[in-house]
Design brief:
- With 327 residues, this protein is an alpha/beta fold.
- The protein has one domain: 3-Layer(aba) Sandwich (Rossmann fold).
- 49% of the residues lie in helices and 15% in strands.
- Helix 9 links the parallel strand 8 and strand 9.
- Helix 1 packs across helix 12, helix 3 runs antiparallel to helix 4 and helix 9 packs parallel to helix 11.
- The radius of gyration is 23 Å and the shape is elongated.
- The two termini are 23 Å apart.
Amino acid sequence: MAAGAQRSLLENRLVIVTGKGGTGKTTVSAALALAGARAGLRVLVAEMGPDEQIPRLLDPRAPRAGYAGCAILPGLRAMRIEPFEALAEYLGLQLGVRAIVDAVVRNRAFRQLMTAAPGWRELITLGKIWHLAQLDSEDPPGRRFDLIVVDAPATGHGVAFLDVPRVVVSAVRAGPLRAHAQRVERMLEDSDQTLVLPVALAEELPAREIAELTDRVRNEIGISIDRVIVNAVVGPPFPDAIRDLDEALARLDGDLELGALPPPRVLARCAHHLRSRHELNRRFTAEIQHTTGLPIVELPRLPEGIQGPDQISSLASALLAKPVFLK
Protein backbone atom coordinates (compact mmCIF):
# COMPACT_ATOMS: atom_id res chain seq x y z
CA MET A 1 0.00 0.00 0.00
CA ALA A 2 1.21 3.48 -0.76
CA ALA A 3 2.19 5.65 2.15
CA GLY A 4 -0.48 8.16 1.23
CA ALA A 5 -3.34 5.68 1.59
CA GLN A 6 -3.52 6.17 5.37
CA ARG A 7 -6.52 3.96 6.03
CA SER A 8 -7.52 3.10 9.56
CA LEU A 9 -5.52 0.41 11.31
CA LEU A 10 -8.81 -1.32 12.05
CA GLU A 11 -9.44 -1.91 8.34
CA ASN A 12 -6.67 -4.53 8.27
CA ARG A 13 -7.32 -8.15 9.20
CA LEU A 14 -3.75 -8.83 10.34
CA VAL A 15 -1.47 -6.25 11.96
CA ILE A 16 2.05 -7.38 12.86
CA VAL A 17 3.59 -5.04 15.45
CA THR A 18 7.36 -4.94 15.63
CA GLY A 19 10.22 -2.66 16.66
CA LYS A 20 13.38 -2.54 18.72
CA GLY A 21 13.08 -4.09 22.18
CA GLY A 22 12.00 -1.51 24.75
CA THR A 23 10.11 0.72 22.32
CA GLY A 24 6.72 -0.35 23.65
CA LYS A 25 5.53 -2.68 20.88
CA THR A 26 3.71 -4.90 23.38
CA THR A 27 1.93 -1.85 24.80
CA VAL A 28 0.98 -0.77 21.25
CA SER A 29 -0.28 -4.30 20.49
CA ALA A 30 -2.50 -4.22 23.58
CA ALA A 31 -3.77 -0.71 22.76
CA LEU A 32 -4.62 -1.66 19.17
CA ALA A 33 -6.44 -4.81 20.29
CA LEU A 34 -8.45 -2.73 22.76
CA ALA A 35 -9.26 -0.12 20.10
CA GLY A 36 -10.53 -2.87 17.81
CA ALA A 37 -12.74 -4.41 20.49
CA ARG A 38 -14.15 -0.98 21.34
CA ALA A 39 -15.06 -0.53 17.68
CA GLY A 40 -17.11 -3.73 17.78
CA LEU A 41 -14.60 -6.00 16.06
CA ARG A 42 -13.85 -9.56 17.07
CA VAL A 43 -10.17 -9.29 17.99
CA LEU A 44 -7.40 -11.75 18.74
CA VAL A 45 -4.08 -10.50 20.11
CA ALA A 46 -1.22 -13.00 19.96
CA GLU A 47 2.07 -12.76 21.84
CA MET A 48 5.28 -14.62 20.99
CA GLY A 49 7.60 -13.81 23.85
CA PRO A 50 8.44 -16.23 26.67
CA ASP A 51 6.31 -14.27 29.14
CA GLU A 52 2.72 -13.16 28.80
CA GLN A 53 2.14 -9.46 29.33
CA ILE A 54 -0.90 -8.36 27.34
CA PRO A 55 -3.71 -10.03 29.34
CA ARG A 56 -2.62 -8.29 32.56
CA LEU A 57 -2.17 -4.98 30.76
CA LEU A 58 -5.79 -5.16 29.66
CA ASP A 59 -7.21 -6.58 32.88
CA PRO A 60 -5.15 -7.08 36.08
CA ARG A 61 -7.46 -9.98 37.02
CA ALA A 62 -7.06 -11.77 33.69
CA PRO A 63 -5.91 -15.40 33.80
CA ARG A 64 -2.95 -16.64 31.81
CA ALA A 65 -4.04 -17.08 28.20
CA GLY A 66 -1.53 -19.72 27.15
CA TYR A 67 -1.63 -21.43 23.77
CA ALA A 68 -5.33 -22.23 24.07
CA GLY A 69 -6.12 -18.56 24.62
CA CYS A 70 -8.90 -16.97 26.63
CA ALA A 71 -11.36 -14.09 26.46
CA ILE A 72 -10.01 -10.99 28.19
CA LEU A 73 -12.72 -8.44 27.42
CA PRO A 74 -15.92 -8.54 25.34
CA GLY A 75 -14.84 -9.13 21.76
CA LEU A 76 -11.16 -9.52 22.68
CA ARG A 77 -9.26 -12.77 23.02
CA ALA A 78 -5.58 -13.24 23.85
CA MET A 79 -3.13 -16.12 23.37
CA ARG A 80 0.58 -16.86 23.40
CA ILE A 81 1.89 -18.81 20.41
CA GLU A 82 4.45 -21.35 21.63
CA PRO A 83 6.34 -22.94 18.69
CA PHE A 84 6.50 -26.50 20.06
CA GLU A 85 2.78 -26.51 20.82
CA ALA A 86 2.07 -25.15 17.34
CA LEU A 87 4.31 -27.85 15.85
CA ALA A 88 2.50 -30.59 17.79
CA GLU A 89 -0.86 -29.25 16.63
CA TYR A 90 0.25 -29.08 12.99
CA LEU A 91 1.80 -32.57 12.94
CA GLY A 92 -1.22 -33.98 14.76
CA LEU A 93 -3.53 -32.59 12.08
CA GLN A 94 -1.30 -33.86 9.26
CA LEU A 95 -0.64 -37.35 10.67
CA GLY A 96 -3.86 -37.94 12.59
CA VAL A 97 -2.03 -39.41 15.61
CA ARG A 98 -1.94 -36.53 18.08
CA ALA A 99 -1.09 -38.65 21.13
CA ILE A 100 2.06 -40.03 19.47
CA VAL A 101 3.00 -36.60 18.15
CA ASP A 102 2.64 -35.06 21.63
CA ALA A 103 4.95 -37.71 23.10
CA VAL A 104 7.58 -37.09 20.42
CA VAL A 105 7.42 -33.29 20.76
CA ARG A 106 7.80 -33.55 24.55
CA ASN A 107 10.89 -35.73 24.14
CA ARG A 108 14.00 -33.91 25.37
CA ALA A 109 16.28 -35.16 22.57
CA PHE A 110 13.76 -34.12 19.92
CA ARG A 111 13.50 -30.65 21.45
CA GLN A 112 17.27 -30.27 21.53
CA LEU A 113 17.47 -31.29 17.87
CA MET A 114 14.72 -28.86 16.87
CA THR A 115 16.20 -26.03 18.94
CA ALA A 116 19.32 -26.23 16.77
CA ALA A 117 17.34 -26.18 13.52
CA PRO A 118 16.94 -22.68 12.01
CA GLY A 119 13.72 -21.19 10.69
CA TRP A 120 11.14 -23.74 11.76
CA ARG A 121 9.88 -21.71 14.75
CA GLU A 122 9.16 -18.71 12.55
CA LEU A 123 7.46 -20.78 9.86
CA ILE A 124 5.30 -22.81 12.25
CA THR A 125 4.34 -19.66 14.16
CA LEU A 126 3.33 -17.84 10.98
CA GLY A 127 1.49 -20.98 9.91
CA LYS A 128 -0.51 -20.85 13.13
CA ILE A 129 -1.36 -17.21 12.46
CA TRP A 130 -2.48 -18.17 8.94
CA HIS A 131 -4.68 -20.90 10.42
CA LEU A 132 -6.22 -18.47 12.92
CA ALA A 133 -6.99 -16.04 10.08
CA GLN A 134 -8.93 -18.78 8.26
CA LEU A 135 -11.13 -19.81 11.19
CA ASP A 136 -14.85 -19.32 10.67
CA SER A 137 -17.59 -18.30 13.05
CA GLU A 138 -21.17 -19.53 12.99
CA ASP A 139 -22.62 -16.75 15.14
CA PRO A 140 -22.37 -14.35 13.46
CA PRO A 141 -21.38 -16.03 10.19
CA GLY A 142 -18.00 -15.11 8.72
CA ARG A 143 -14.45 -15.01 9.96
CA ARG A 144 -13.99 -15.80 13.63
CA PHE A 145 -11.68 -12.82 14.03
CA ASP A 146 -12.10 -9.49 12.25
CA LEU A 147 -8.68 -8.33 13.45
CA ILE A 148 -5.61 -10.30 14.52
CA VAL A 149 -2.87 -8.30 16.26
CA VAL A 150 0.51 -10.00 16.51
CA ASP A 151 3.12 -8.81 19.01
CA ALA A 152 6.04 -9.93 16.85
CA PRO A 153 9.71 -10.38 17.81
CA ALA A 154 11.94 -7.33 18.18
CA THR A 155 13.48 -5.64 15.14
CA GLY A 156 16.45 -7.91 14.32
CA HIS A 157 14.64 -11.19 14.83
CA GLY A 158 11.43 -9.64 13.52
CA VAL A 159 12.82 -9.21 9.99
CA ALA A 160 14.03 -12.84 9.91
CA PHE A 161 10.65 -13.93 11.27
CA LEU A 162 8.81 -12.27 8.38
CA ASP A 163 11.29 -13.43 5.75
CA VAL A 164 11.20 -17.17 6.47
CA PRO A 165 8.28 -18.06 4.14
CA ARG A 166 10.00 -16.37 1.18
CA VAL A 167 13.26 -18.19 1.93
CA VAL A 168 11.49 -21.56 2.16
CA VAL A 169 9.57 -21.01 -1.09
CA SER A 170 12.86 -20.11 -2.82
CA ALA A 171 14.71 -23.12 -1.44
CA VAL A 172 12.10 -25.92 -1.59
CA ARG A 173 10.95 -27.01 -5.04
CA ALA A 174 7.81 -28.99 -4.15
CA GLY A 175 5.91 -30.76 -1.42
CA PRO A 176 3.77 -29.88 1.62
CA LEU A 177 6.42 -27.61 3.16
CA ARG A 178 6.57 -25.42 0.05
CA ALA A 179 2.77 -25.32 -0.21
CA HIS A 180 2.49 -24.33 3.45
CA ALA A 181 5.10 -21.59 3.05
CA GLN A 182 3.38 -20.28 -0.08
CA ARG A 183 0.07 -19.89 1.75
CA VAL A 184 1.77 -17.95 4.51
CA GLU A 185 3.72 -15.84 2.02
CA ARG A 186 0.53 -14.91 0.14
CA MET A 187 -1.12 -13.87 3.40
CA LEU A 188 1.81 -11.63 4.36
CA GLU A 189 2.06 -10.01 0.93
CA ASP A 190 -1.67 -9.26 0.67
CA SER A 191 -1.70 -5.51 1.34
CA ASP A 192 -5.51 -5.51 1.48
CA GLN A 193 -5.43 -7.42 4.75
CA THR A 194 -1.88 -7.49 6.20
CA LEU A 195 0.12 -4.59 7.62
CA VAL A 196 3.42 -4.40 9.49
CA LEU A 197 3.25 -1.71 12.18
CA PRO A 198 6.73 -0.56 13.26
CA VAL A 199 7.12 1.06 16.68
CA ALA A 200 10.05 3.34 17.52
CA LEU A 201 11.22 5.79 20.13
CA ALA A 202 12.41 9.25 19.11
CA GLU A 203 16.00 8.37 19.99
CA GLU A 204 19.14 7.71 17.96
CA LEU A 205 19.40 3.91 17.94
CA PRO A 206 15.66 3.14 17.55
CA ALA A 207 15.46 5.76 14.77
CA ARG A 208 18.31 4.10 12.89
CA GLU A 209 16.92 0.58 13.34
CA ILE A 210 13.39 1.50 12.28
CA ALA A 211 14.75 2.90 9.01
CA GLU A 212 16.54 -0.39 8.31
CA LEU A 213 13.45 -2.39 9.28
CA THR A 214 11.05 -0.52 7.02
CA ASP A 215 13.44 -0.66 4.09
CA ARG A 216 13.93 -4.43 4.34
CA VAL A 217 10.29 -5.28 5.00
CA ARG A 218 8.99 -3.19 2.09
CA ASN A 219 11.73 -3.70 -0.49
CA GLU A 220 13.16 -7.15 0.25
CA ILE A 221 10.23 -9.04 1.77
CA GLY A 222 7.38 -7.13 0.13
CA ILE A 223 5.00 -6.59 3.07
CA SER A 224 2.96 -3.43 3.42
CA ILE A 225 3.94 -0.65 5.84
CA ASP A 226 2.03 2.63 5.72
CA ARG A 227 3.02 4.46 8.94
CA VAL A 228 5.42 4.45 11.87
CA ILE A 229 4.33 4.66 15.49
CA VAL A 230 6.65 6.92 17.49
CA ASN A 231 6.04 6.06 21.12
CA ALA A 232 6.56 7.98 24.38
CA VAL A 233 6.95 11.38 22.73
CA VAL A 234 7.63 14.25 25.13
CA GLY A 235 5.25 17.09 24.31
CA PRO A 236 6.00 20.83 24.49
CA PRO A 237 6.84 21.49 28.16
CA PHE A 238 5.66 25.13 28.26
CA PRO A 239 2.64 27.06 26.98
CA ASP A 240 3.03 28.82 23.63
CA ALA A 241 3.12 32.22 25.34
CA ILE A 242 6.27 31.30 27.30
CA ARG A 243 8.15 28.83 25.11
CA ASP A 244 11.46 30.18 26.46
CA LEU A 245 10.53 29.73 30.13
CA ASP A 246 13.91 28.12 30.89
CA GLU A 247 15.76 31.14 29.54
CA ALA A 248 13.49 33.53 31.43
CA LEU A 249 14.17 31.67 34.68
CA ALA A 250 17.91 31.77 34.03
CA ARG A 251 17.76 35.57 33.76
CA LEU A 252 16.24 35.96 37.23
CA ASP A 253 18.34 37.06 40.21
CA GLY A 254 19.94 33.95 41.63
CA ASP A 255 19.19 35.12 45.19
CA LEU A 256 15.50 35.73 44.50
CA GLU A 257 13.31 34.11 47.17
CA LEU A 258 10.49 32.03 45.66
CA GLY A 259 8.93 30.77 48.85
CA ALA A 260 8.73 26.97 48.93
CA LEU A 261 10.12 26.70 45.39
CA PRO A 262 13.78 25.96 44.64
CA PRO A 263 16.08 28.85 43.60
CA PRO A 264 15.63 30.22 40.05
CA ARG A 265 18.84 28.56 38.80
CA VAL A 266 17.54 25.12 39.84
CA LEU A 267 14.17 25.76 38.19
CA ALA A 268 15.98 26.98 35.08
CA ARG A 269 18.02 23.78 34.83
CA CYS A 270 14.93 21.61 35.28
CA ALA A 271 13.04 23.62 32.67
CA HIS A 272 15.98 23.44 30.27
CA HIS A 273 16.08 19.65 30.66
CA LEU A 274 12.39 19.39 29.76
CA ARG A 275 12.82 21.64 26.74
CA SER A 276 15.92 19.77 25.56
CA ARG A 277 14.15 16.42 25.84
CA HIS A 278 11.24 17.72 23.79
CA GLU A 279 13.50 19.17 21.11
CA LEU A 280 15.52 15.93 20.95
CA ASN A 281 12.31 13.97 20.40
CA ARG A 282 11.24 16.35 17.63
CA ARG A 283 14.60 15.97 15.88
CA PHE A 284 14.58 12.18 15.90
CA THR A 285 10.89 11.99 14.96
CA ALA A 286 11.68 14.15 11.93
CA GLU A 287 14.62 11.86 11.14
CA ILE A 288 12.37 8.78 11.30
CA GLN A 289 9.94 10.41 8.92
CA HIS A 290 12.74 11.43 6.54
CA THR A 291 14.56 8.08 6.44
CA THR A 292 11.42 5.94 6.15
CA GLY A 293 9.41 8.29 3.92
CA LEU A 294 6.36 7.36 5.98
CA PRO A 295 3.83 9.42 7.94
CA ILE A 296 3.97 9.35 11.72
CA VAL A 297 1.55 8.62 14.54
CA GLU A 298 2.85 10.00 17.83
CA LEU A 299 1.90 8.45 21.15
CA PRO A 300 2.48 10.65 24.21
CA ARG A 301 4.87 9.85 26.99
CA LEU A 302 2.79 9.03 30.05
CA PRO A 303 4.36 10.49 33.21
CA GLU A 304 3.15 7.59 35.34
CA GLY A 305 4.23 4.97 32.78
CA ILE A 306 2.12 1.98 31.81
CA GLN A 307 0.44 0.67 34.92
CA GLY A 308 -2.55 -1.10 33.42
CA PRO A 309 -5.88 -0.65 31.62
CA ASP A 310 -6.23 3.10 32.19
CA GLN A 311 -2.98 3.91 30.39
CA ILE A 312 -3.65 1.36 27.63
CA SER A 313 -7.08 2.92 27.14
CA SER A 314 -5.63 6.41 26.70
CA LEU A 315 -3.14 5.12 24.11
CA ALA A 316 -5.83 3.21 22.21
CA SER A 317 -7.51 6.43 21.12
CA ALA A 318 -4.23 8.15 20.20
CA LEU A 319 -3.13 5.12 18.18
CA LEU A 320 -6.02 5.53 15.74
CA ALA A 321 -5.14 9.13 14.89
CA LYS A 322 -4.54 9.83 11.21
CA PRO A 323 -0.82 9.47 10.40
CA VAL A 324 0.73 12.77 9.35
CA PHE A 325 3.88 14.16 7.78
CA LEU A 326 5.34 16.56 10.31
CA LYS A 327 6.22 20.07 9.24
